[in-house]
Model the fold of this input.
Amino acid sequence: MCRCVLEMKHAAPVEDVLMMPSGSLMLSAASNQIYVWDLLGGGRLLTKTSSHQKVVTCLRYAPPVGQNAEGRVLSGSLDGFVKVRCLKSSLRLSRTR
Done:
C-alpha cells in the first residue's frame, strides 16, 4: 500500500498541480496564487506569486525552444487572463524564506 510522502499546506483549495520535467519541482495553484515547491528539499516552499486577480484554474509547462531558451509556465485564471512566466527568472527574483 502506498503512503503519503510529502504534504504541502495551502491557504485555499488547490485548483491544479504541475510536476516539472526534472521531477524536482512542483507548482500548485490555490486561490490567485501559484506556489513553487522543492520536492527534493522535502517539499519546501521556494516562492509564491499572486499576479492574477481571481482564482488560478490551470497550470501548464512549455519546454524551451531554441538555444539559450528557458522553459515557461502558463497559468490561466477566472480573471480571463493567461500569464506566461520564465520559471528560472521567477525563482531567482522572488524566493520565500
Summary: Strands lie at 14-19, 25-30, 33-38, 44-49, 56-62, 72-77, 82-86.
